[in-house]
Every structure is written in structure tokens, then in C-alpha cells.
Amino acid sequence: MHSTYRVQFTPGFTFHDGVRVLNYLRRLGVGALYASPMLDAREGSTHGYDVVDPTRARQELGGDQGRAVLQEELRRRGMGLVVDIVPNHMAVPNPWWDDVLAHGRKSQYAAFFDIDWSEGKVLLPVLPEDAADEEHEHYRKVDWRRGNTELNYRRFFDITELAALRVEEQEVFDATHDEVLSWQADGLRVDHPDGLADPGGYFRRLRERTGAWIVVEKILGPDEELPQSWPVDGTTGYDALREICGVFIDRAAESYFRGDFHTVEHDSRELVANTILAAEVGRIARLVKDVDHTEACVAVAEVMVNFPVYRSYLPEGWSHWEQAVARSSSPAVRALDEQVRADPHGELATRFQQTSGMVVAKGTEDTAFYRYTNFVALNEVGGAPDRFGVSVDEFHYRAAHRESAFPRSMTTLSTHDTKRSEDVRARLAVLAEIPEDYRAAEWRWSEKHGLPEPTLNELAWQSLLGAWPISAERLERYLEKASREAKIATSWVDRNERFDEVVQAWPVDLLADSAVVQEISAFVDRITPAGWSNSLGQKLVQLTAPGVPDVYQGTELWDFSLVDPDNRRPVDYELRSELLGRIESGWLPEVDSTGAAKLLVVQRALSVRASLSGYRPMFAEGPSAAHVLAFQRGDVVTVATRLPMGLSHSGWRDSVLPLPPGEWTDVLTGRPAVAELSHLLEVYPVALLTRNR
Fold first, then answer.
1. Residue 338: CB partners within 8 Å, gap ≥ 6?
2. Domains in the chain and their CATH numbers?
3. b/e per residue 23-42 (b: at least 16 CB within 10 A)
4. How far apart are CA 173 and CA 205, in angstroms?
5. Is residue 401 within a helix (H) or strand (E), and if so which, with residue range?
6. Separation of alpha carbons 497 and 495, rounded Å
7. I need a surface site. Which of 239, 382, 449, 467 has the fewest CB within 10 A?
8. Which of 271, 390, 398, 288 is nearest to 346 (CA)?
9. H or E element: which one contains 189?
10. 515-572 pLDDT per residue, tens
11. Do β-strands 155-156 and 159-164 pair in parallel, antiparallel, or remain unpaired?
12. Cα–Cα distance between 215 and 217 in angstroms, integer?
């Protein structure tokens, strides 16, 4: 497994469509097709994480026959299949869930779902606001708003339509995994392991059933590592994303964008714990013995809010638990701590661990990242906005560590979950090189078209610049989601209709102002070449650094997408295949708006993957040495330009990159490689060197 290419299967892009693009992917150099969930999902789903029947391939995508044909065609081309699986939850209603509602605790599936039966009925928060309760034998329909405070079944985050499974039970594991494991895929991507009762036990059971490559959708803190006891190959790559994107940000600009992220993050987590996840907090608090329920709720919420990572994995992760407890001062914290320590495998400790990740994710990623908008290129899944970029030394250290500890961990720059695509972030990184100019422009534009909520206003201008040109419709959809996720002036639960109307009207009003549009367009024109340089640099680094790189669908050309569903738009594979054909014929495209230069970098980088080994940092010498990131892996050397806006003013000034012994060729251009950077990087801002045999 040397590389993957992520494809989002939808009713508009089926298994048959996947077969049609395989020749293109093989020519691109892809090692395996990395598929979104392929089991039967809710009708019309564009992501597939809402599985309703884990015993068959999704009918809308072509069913088991279509899946089998896809796998056979992959094998025929020497390519693998990586399947995304969802062990934590299923979409409801589904046949198993319907049986539970019909028969209650006597249902053969009653133990499949994580339901608190103490009230005797399942609470279904599905009725319109203020509607009367409906009294059925085994369930009760209530106002949808009551779900966040009274729900009595575990769910995926705050989505009541996704009911959690008790996959820790062998019967449930078998029922939900037998079909997908029978496909004998080459790799498995495991979604949301932090929601499982015992992730380590789950992975050990999964490993017993398959020899496949296993990567986990685990978001690590900047200094956190996967538990050593998990028999997996690594993460899905958000840790690498932070490091690769961060090294292209000018850390000297931090003072222009500095703010108090930790306060914003703490307040956001606290809001989430006490509102949208109150039902989960309350269920845990009821397990704390000999403590008033209200005081127990306060203690549970406080410790979760103070977690330094998404969750601890007890008993391995005591240090993270201890840090959270030490930061908490509620009277009931001591009792909570003692009872968790007394039984780290018990229900209290288990449920706490399952829920802490929900508080952190909803509080940090889905709230704080939309509130703390000083420099949104840092606000990415797995990101650390309090750490302004990544130094070259830190990048080399972490890359070498990945090579030694998790050489088969996935690396990524864009996914179906990223807040903005890699090329948007690459362009926004340029703002750190011209912070004064950017701040002046933002202030000037805000004077004419400012949004009334300051953090949303900052987010709107940066999003506009990063994704430009963008339609009013796309920008309107994005700002609606961003404003409601931030939960400041409006939210999904408590709508502020007047504010929502202002946000809705903003894109059309702004784009109708030709003078401001002309200014914005001129500003984007100024930063675009440097953004292209960053895009090519981070892509080449990702594809050749330690790990197994993934290319998200369509991002082999420029892709200026924002958060889902914007990043699930159809991909024009005919255009990509045509451009690739020209590259295969010897065409060296300009670095321009077509994005063909990025396609060249992807194709050439994937072609040398099999030759990569080890990791050796390399350093340029001379007055512009800081503008280079370089490393050697076996007989391959990667060279990328950093901070290109500053470089455009100074030039390379006789700076050199001393090359290892031997003669080297740049496979991007076919030219002999030399140490002088002005010549080595004359055609492209990146170089990929191979030693002549």
C-alpha cells in the first residue's frame, strides 16, 4: 500500500462510475482506491456514514454485484481497495431499530443499541416544537428540542438520527462486520474509534479477523501518540496535515493574528457540555454514587471540558485523566475521580471516555474553530490554532518519528471532513507574509460590507479570499453553516431569524458592489502565485514524506472547496484524464490557473513512491536558506519553496542546497539537478530529484 485515492461514492457516482475512472487512477500512479462507506446507507446519502443495513453493499451504488465488479477490476490493474467502515453507530430508523421499537427489551436487537432502559421506553425526539407527547408501548415521541437534554440512547455526537451500537459485544461485532470483512479488502479505515467502549479491544478483535492495512480516524493532539496497545498501522493523517501545512506558514506573523484561543475553546466546550450534550452528561452523572445529581453533572462536565486530548484510554491514559481532574475544582470531582480509579473498566469510566471526545470535538472543532477566526488556515481538524505554524526543525523531527514509529500511517491534506481544502489553506498561508496589508484591506472592506458579528466577519473575508472566485450561493451556504456552528448570534437549535437574514443577504450584496469586488479580485491576484507555490510544495512534501499519502478526490488539480457539502461536488475526471495524457506525452505545464502543474507533481511523486526509504533532513545554505524545505529518502530528494512572497522580493541570492554524492535529475522537468537554487527551482517552485543509476 504505497498510496491511496479517496472517492466519495454517492447515488450520482456509483461503483460503476468508480470502475470507469480506474484507468485514469492507475495512470496517475495510485496504489489503492480508498472508498467512502460502501454498506447500505440511508436513501440519497451523499456520504454513506448513515448505514441502515451492514449485511449488504449499498443498493443505490450498485449493490454487491457492483462492488464485486469494482474489486475485480481493481485487482486486474494491480490496485487495492480500502473501505471506510463505521463501527460506532447506525442510522435510525432501520430494520433492527424498528424491531426494538416494536418489541422493546424483548427484541432480539435490544442489546445491539446503547439504550438506557431505566424508563422502560425509548425517547424519540422527532415531533415539531410544542407538539404533545405520543404514549406507545415501547417508545415515546416528544418535541425534537428535548433530545439534547433527555435522550436515553447514545448517539453519534449530537445527531439523534445516528444511534450508537454496542460493538463491544461479540454478537453485535459479528452482525455488523461479517459482510464487510468477507470482501477481503486490502485496507480498512475505521471511523470514530473514540466513540467505542473499548477501542483497543475492538482493534484487537478486528485484527484477529483480517490482515488488512488498518488506519483509524483518530485526531491526536500535537504531542499525543496512538496507544501502543492498538494493533493498527496509524491514523488517517490529520497529524501529518497540521505539520505539512504548518511549515508553509510564516511564524513571524503570529503577533498580527494572536488571540486567546484557550479561553474561546474552554467556553465553547463548556457550552456544548451543558447544552447539546447535556443528556450524555446527565447519564454519566447518574452513575456517580453518593453525590447529588446536579453536583455530579457539574463535575462530569468540568472534567470533560478540561481534557487535554479527545479522550483517555484507561488504564493506559491515566496522565490525561489526571491533568483534567487537576484542572477541575467542582466539589464532586474528588468522588468522580475516586470511583473512576476504582474501576477503570467499569460503566462510569467507560461512558466518560466515550463522551469526552464528543465534548472536545463539538466544542473545539465545531464551535471554537468557528469563533476563533484570527487566522483560519490553522483552524483545521487536528489543528492547533494556539501554535502558529510549524518550524522546519519540528517538521523534520516529526517526519523522522513517523518513519520510525508509524511508517504506514496515512497522510493527508484534504478529506471529506476538512474545514477547507488544501489549496484554500495554501493561499491563506500567504496572508501571514503580508499581515499588515491584509489587515488594512479587511478593515477597508468591512467599513462598507462588514457583518455585524466580528468573528464571523473575519471568517467571511478570509473564506472569500481563500476560495475566490466563489458564487454567492456557495458562500451563502458556507456562512449559514459557519454562523450556526459558532453559536454566537444564531445556532441550529436557537435561530435568530433577523441575523440569519443578514448573513443570507451578505454574499449577494457584496458581489453586487463592483468596486469592492474589483479590489478583492486584485488582492487575490496578488497572493495567488504564492498560494500556488505553497500548494505545490505541501503536495510534493505530503506525497514523498514518511507515511502512506492519500489524494482526496479531485485535488490533483487546484481545488478551492470549503467545508462539506462544498467539498463533495462532482469531479471532472475527463478533464483530468485529458491533462494527464498531455503530461504523459512530455508536456511541462506552466504554473497557472489550470492546475496542471499540480497534476504533474502528483503523477511524478506517485511514480517514485516505491523508491522511498528512510528519512534524512537536508538544509540549504546562503542568505535565502530559510525559504527551503528539503529531505532525502533513499535515492530521492524532495525540495520545496517556503514563504514565497518574501522570496519574491529577495530572490535566492546565491543560496544553494548541497546535494548528496552522485548525479541527480529533477523528474519534474527532466533537467540535471544542481546545487544552485536559482537554477534548481527555475521552472517550478518544487523539485523532485532522483539519483542517476
1. none
2. 4-88+168-236 (3.20.20.80), 95-164 (3.30.1590.10), 261-371 (no CATH), 434-525 (1.10.10.470)
3. ebbeebbbbbbbbbbbbbbb
4. 9
5. helix 392-405
6. 6
7. 449
8. 288
9. strand 187-190
10. 999 999 999 999 999 999 999 999 999 999 999 999 999 999 999 999 999 999 999 9
11. antiparallel
12. 7
Query: 3 is written with which cell numbers?
Result: 498510496
Measured CA to CA, the distance from residue 565 to residue 474 in angstroms comes to 10
One-letter amino acid for residue 523 of the chain: F
User: How many CB atoms within 10 Å of residue 446?
Assistant: 15
- Quote the CA–CA distance of 425 and 375 in Å, as a whole number: 10
For 471, counting Cβ atoms within 10 Å of its Cβ (0-12 exposed, 13-18 middle, 19+ buried), the class is exposed
Instruction: Tell me the residue type at 247.
Output: V
b/e code 240-272 from CB counts within 10 Å (16+ = b)? bbbbbbbbbbbeebbebbeeebeebbbebbbbb
For residue 654, the one-letter residue type is D
Q: How confident is the model at residue 130 (pLDDT cuts 50, 70, 90)?
A: low
Closest CA to 4 of 38, 40, 36: 36
In degrees, to the nearest 5, what angle opens at C-alpha 554 toward C-alphas 548 and 559? 105
Question: For residue 213, what is the enclosing H or E element?
Answer: strand 213-216
Tell me whether the omega of the peptide bond preceding residue 565 falls within 30 degrees of 0, making it cis: yes
**Cβ neighbours of residue 217 closer than 8 Å, sequence gap 6 or more:** 189, 190, 191, 192, 193, 235, 236
**CA dist., res. 606 & res. 616, Å (int):** 19
**Residue 316: pLDDT band with limits 50, 70, 90:** confident
Tell me the HSE value of 254 on the side-chain side, using a 13 A CA sphere. Answer: 12
Closest among 626, 604, 624, 598 to 676, alpha carbons compared: 624
| Residue 499, CB-side half-sphere exposure with 13 Å CA sphere | 20
Work out the average pLDDT over 177-191: 98
